What we know:
The chain has one domain (2-40, 73-131): Alpha-Beta Plaits, CATH 3.30.70.141. The chain has helices spanning 11-15, 19-28, 43-49, 59-66, 81-89, 102-106, 121-131, and strands at residues 2-9, 32-39, 71-79, 115-117. The protein is an alpha+beta fold. The longest helix is centred in the last third of the chain and has 11 residues, at 121-131.
Amino acid sequence: MAERTLAIIKPDALKSRYAGKILQRIDEAGFTIRAMRLLNLSKKEAEGFYAVHRERPFFASLTTFMSSGPVIVMALEAPDAVKKWRTLMGATDPAKADAGTLRKEFGASIENNATHGSDAPETATFELGYFFTGMELAR
């Protein structure tokens, strides 16, 4: 059975012109893109999305970074999509990510790591709903 997850191509990857390469890797990995849009998150929108991390020391820098330029948000669908996307992304720290992963290839640091992905099916439900309406995901 297919599952959905949220994927974000972060501002650093767009600035470095990696979006096309990342989208190609998503397609080659067998994901179906069910919804996609280019956004410029406000600081407040980034804070709302990352509210679960509000008490963490990196919250301010993360939300500033995520509102620093355009992002591409996507609803990806595949069997076991959450795990599959996290495997394709690689470890949060690109220096510790496996060869061939998106973060190893396109990330520069723990924060500037090119992509975001939901960490569990429950998180994916919240995150998808943050960016897409039910009508956009109905297919």
